[in-house]
Amino acid sequence: MSALIDFANKLLARVDIVEVVGEYVPLKRAGQNYRGLCPFHREKTPSFNVSPTKQIFHCFGCGVGGDAIRFIMRIEHLEWVDALKLLAQKHGIPLPEFERRTADKAIQDAKTKLYEVNKLACEFYAANLQKALKDPKHPATQYLAKRKINAELATRFSLGLAPTGWTDFTEAAKRAGFEPETVVGAGLAIRHSESGRVYDRFRNRIIFPICDSLGRPVAFGARVYAPDAAPDEPKYINSPETAIYRKGQVLYGLHLAKDSIVREGYALLMEGYLDVIRAHQFGFTHAVATCGTALTEEQGGTLKKLARRVLFAYDGDEAGQKAMLRGCEVLLEYELGIQVVVLPDPHDPDSYLVEYGTEPFRQLIAKSRDFFDFFLDRAIERFGSGTVAAKVECVQFLIPILQRVRNAVAQREYVRMAARRLDVDEAALLRQLRSKQKSSPQQLAKTLTHATSSEPRSECTLLKLVVEYENMRAWAFEHVVPDWLASSRVRKWFERCRTLHAEGRLLGWESLLRECSDDETDEDARFLREVAFMEGEPVDQLTSETLSSFLARLKRSFFERMVADYCSTLRHLYPEDPEGETWRKMVEELSEHHPALREALLLAQRTSVLRMLPNFGH
Ligand SMILES: [Zn+2]
User: Fold this and answer.
1) Of 332, 367, 402, which residue is a domain's last?
2) What angle (nearest 5°) sits at the alpha carbon of residue 191, between those of residues 187 and 196?
3) Which of 162, 235, 445, 446 has the most CB atoms around its CB within 10 Å?
4) CA of 397 to the centre of ligand 1 (A)
5) What's the CA-to-centroid distance between 467 and ligand 1, angstroms?
6) Strand, helix or coil at 405?
7) What is residue 282's predicted lDDT score, i.e. its pLDDT?
């Protein structure tokens, strides 16, 4: 493979991404970059950017991006090697002879091996569970009994049990003729970085095989079950991404549910493995789950091919509703009808079905609400609707949702519904909607609260300076203490830059992006591309004054956070003293002996974040 990667790097150095993209997307110059309408999501204002200097593209609307090969992969729906070949061909650059003959076959063979070893693992874990189930005292038997999962259900979903040993599966795979490399490549084992030893990834856990739509196991979710498990063990661990598995690509249970989804005309979308298993047990065989991640465009596309409607049956809690809102945004792009099954708090589909059974759940489905109506309720619940300010907040919450509604008739109907419920002027609401539609892609991205756009801008600017301006690095690494940065993501990459700089290694967007996962939904890669495309002041306009005021700002907000943390801890410690007399005295006493705290308090006071603090005159 490495010869192929060398070739890819040479190819990328020779082609111009503006030309490559320009063949598919009309681009217009915009400052240092080029801009056009994103070919990967529907939009009316361009938020798709291409940088000739950095040789990457990035869409602020849907978040996809990468180098020229990534672009070809996406737009031509090709695997990486095929995109590489196409790009080389287009530019008349011959693919090295030996690669052309072997690359395809080698990759195909490697994939076949991964499917085979996953199948073996699935059978291995399932047999191990069936053996354990014969012993009623086995903790796995007791766990499944507690979760009301019988042997038949376990078989239907190929549930398994990973043994407690360190190499049980790796050894079994070896006996079946698989190289350790294949087992590691499938994510079933891990190679220790120092000793080089290979050990099983999943140990002493209940195994949920995740299958593709053809029913081939491509990944595994593994849950702790043993009552004596260490409390800091993560509840679930999952397979990493492999050559045959990308997160957000498969829907859990789809291979068992697809016929029912077509027959029913809609899909029941849930959050967890157990929700789906339970739903199938009670006859709702059109249930699938996203398993842990927010619904992706790919999953939305899969659902669109099977059905015209999707019913969300998510947890009623805050996290569930947030995930549902993001899922709606995806499904609206596909013009799918969306409804919400409202589960009484604190139930999830699993617990509800266990407690009430089939008929009440069927009634909940029958009473499912239109998604917009549902979110309108949530907005009113959250912000109220009695005052002008509350109405404005509700409208602000609803507008990004309304914008995603493709169908003009439906959009108009929702606007009318919102205007009536909130008692606001319908024409004004429409105007607001249209004006927002014209807003810049960056603003739009912000209103849609993409995670990466929410990092503090000044901190992103700092990162940009460090990456793009070599002569700023020494200054930044000397003066900025990473702890001052509020955003953990900026801090992480700032520190990474510092390490690369200290080791005298190449530092640029390409080298940082190469450290991210290849996954297109990777939040770090997306964040880095956004900062790379962020427009800032040209560096020659930065005076020493702006730099030092910038530093002061960073420092101050760090102190403010520190003091606020400190105060809230104290308040927490003395709940019986709501006026804060006790902690006021303690702060006073402590600051006498602690110069750093005193400095922080003085700063905080000067910036009047915490007016309630006792006075600390000089
Ligand atoms: Zn896009």
Assistant:
1) 367
2) 165
3) 162
4) 22
5) 25
6) coil
7) 95
Question: Low-confidence residues of the chain, pLDDT below 70?
Answer: 1-2, 97-104, 292, 436-455, 518-521, 536-543, 564, 566-584, 586-587, 600-618
- CA–CA separation, 32 vs 55, rounded Å? 12
Write down the pLDDT at residue 452: 39
Using alpha carbons, select from 239, 120, 127 the residue that is nearest to residue 189: 239
CB 299 within 8 A of CB 249: yes
Residue list, CB under 5 A from ion ligand 1: 38, 40-41, 59, 61-62
Q: Ligand 1: distance of its center to the CA of 125 in Å?
A: 41
CA of 298 to the centre of ligand 1 (A): 14
Is the same domain home to 287 and 336? yes
Does 245 map to a domain?
Answer: no
What is the Å distance from ligand 1's center to 173 Cα?
42
CA of 376 to the centre of ligand 1 (A): 27
145 and 215 share a domain?
A: yes
Residue 256 Cα, ligand 1 centroid: separation in angstroms? 32
ipTM of the complex, rounded to two decimals? 0.95
Are 526 and 567 contained in the same domain? no
Give 29 Cα–ligand 1 centroid separation in angstroms. 18
Do 430 and 458 fall into the same domain? no
Domain, as residue range, for 593? 544-606
When divided into structural domains, the chain yields a total of 6
- Determine how β-strand 309-312 pairs with β-strand 266-270: parallel
